[in-house]
Write a structure and sequence with these properties.
The chain is α/β, with parallel strands linked by helices and 465 residues long. It has a six-stranded mixed β-sheet, with helices on both faces. The protein has a five-stranded parallel β-sheet with strand order 8-5-6-7-15, with helices on both faces. Strands 1-2 form a two-stranded antiparallel ribbon. It is globular and about 60 Å long.
Length: 465
């Protein structure tokens, strides 16, 4: 399996190359040279199979030539050994033809664990084969950072630097990162937004001398290994239902929903992919108005989605323009310069053939939490609530579910956002055992200005220590 860059100016790479590089040298994002195909009969046979077996069936299509079957199976088993749900991503029915796909049963109680636990296992094995070190710099809007720390903290030959926007993540999210005791983990509270942090990470990759010097790589969803791992639960959910579903995906950086497109391109029958956004509605505006334009990042009850530049959208654009790398590179350069991109009609039509997009505000988020609690007794987090609210705004659910089952991706445990839940139902959710005592632990972090030079100096000083 070979991989290419969305911008067309990078040599073909193996899965291990992609895993350890993260971002392509030309600034683009890696995708498989051609999508592997999983036959319909094999997908149907996923019904009732262990999640780990489905993960192997999907991931082995990408890892061939980089990891043996035995290595991949061992990595998958290790990755999912510490999940609280035996089936890893349980599908829970909430009403007729309505479901929540619970993705928060991993070590940090967020969907990022599903991909990052396997990423950490594969990282460790790839480095052991090649030798050397890796420096991981991750921008996080809340959940990627803690999941990366849980997956990579304490591993040999890896240094992890996590940047979160100061004051823009929940207290629980912050504490999950900053109370880590691993010596190879370094937390930065950036005086800026997530988009600022993400921009700094991209600037570090653009400084090729610095990137090469520290063996820089990424675990954000710009790393295709994350997308590959997230494809799996689209397959397991569809197999469990026995029919194509409409997946409603709370998304900020577009990785989780692009994994749905990746599954579709691998042969999964998907009825619809619905982009659910909060007030940071760049993706809703892009799909509905045809203009991809970043604005001011707004703080909301769903902070992990407080993003105005959706990095993985480049992958969707590349596929929608029939893999025209020259157009994609020019479009992304225009967007970087102007912070605005008019999407050509033929590209927009291709996107709309697969995606719909709905934006919801905080009032609708609170109302969705309250409605689900009243109707089912379940407590959902504010990001999942954005998905529920988006489904409601698409029209009467009776009409929607008559066409296909509606599956909302439930991306985080409600206890990570107790204040938002309390606003909606009058009390915070019960605290799970994984979070017990977290607030009593000492924190380790550095508060730094939004300045790439300062970030470089900090990284260099910690690596030299």
């Amino acid at each position: 399996m070979n991989f290419l860059s969305t911008r067309g100016h990078t040599a073909k790479a193996s899965f291990s190359d992609v895993l350890l590089a993260g971002l392509a040298p030309d600034g683009g994002l890696y995708l498989p040279e051609s999508w592997p195909h999983i036959p319909a009969a094999e997908i149907a046979a996923f019904r009732g199979a262990r999640y780990q077996e489905v993960a192997f069936a999907v991931l082995s299509r990408f890892t061939a030539g980089s990891f043996s079957d035995a290595e991949l199976r061992e990595a998958i088993e290790a990755a999912y050994s510490d999940f609280d749900a035996p089936d890893i991503a349980p599908l829970v029915q909430t009403a007729d033809n309505q479901y929540l796909l619970e993705l928060f049963h991993g070590p940090t109680l967020a969907f990022k664990d599903i991909a990052l636990q396997i990423l950490g296992q594969l990282f460790s094995r790839a480095l052991a084969k090649r030798g050397g070190r890796a420096t991981i710099v991750a921008a996080t809007s809340g959940d990627t950072g803690s999941a990366a720390i849980a997956a990579l903290g304490g591993l040999p030959n890896i240094s992890v630097f996590v940047m979160h926007p100061k004051g823009r993540v929940s207290n629980v999210q912050r504490l999950q990162m900053t109370t880590s005791t691993h010596a190879n983990v370094h937390n930065i509270a950036l005086e800026g937004s997530f988009d600022d942090a993400q921009g700094i990470v991209k600037s570090l990759f653009a400084d090729t001398d610095f990137a090469d010097q520290i063996s820089l790589t990424a675990v954000n969803s710009i790393n295709f290994a994350r997308i590959a791992a997230q494809c799996v639960y689209y397959f397991t959910a569809t197999a469990a239902l026995g029919k194509p579903a409409t997946f409603v995906v709370p998304t900020g950086n577009f990785g989780d929903i692009f994994a749905g497109e990746a599954a579709f391109r691998m042969g999964l029958d998907v009825a619809r992919l619905v982009i659910a956004t909060n007030a940071n509605d760049i993706m809703a505006r892009a799909l509905n108005e045809g203009v991809y334009e970043s604005g001011i990042s707004h703080a909301t009850l769903s902070p992990s989605m407080d993003i105005q530049v959706a990095s993985n959208f480049e992958r969707a654009l590349f596929e929608a323009c029939d893999r025209d790398a020259d157009w994609t590179a020019a479009a992304m350069n225009d967007f970087t310069r102007e912070r605005r991109l008019g999407i050509p009609q033929e590209v927009l039509a291709s996107l709309r053939s697969r995606y719909s997009a709905v934006a919801c505000d905080d009032a609708e988020t609170r109302a969705a939490i309250a409605a689900v609690y009243k109707g089912t007794g379940r407590i959902i987090d504010p990001h999942t609530a954005v998905g529920v609210a988006a489904a409601l705004k698409m029209g009467p659910l009776e009409e929607l579910t008559a066409l296909s089952p509606v599956v909302v991706l439930s991306t985080a445990h409600p206890a990570k956002f107790p204040d938002a839940v309390a606003q909606a139902i009058g009390a915070p959710p019960p605290e799970p055992a994984r979070l017990a005592g977290l607030k009593n632990l000492p924190e380790r972090l550095e508060i730094l200005a939004n300045d790439p030079t300062l970030i470089k100096q900090f990284i260099s000083s910690r690596l030299a220590a």
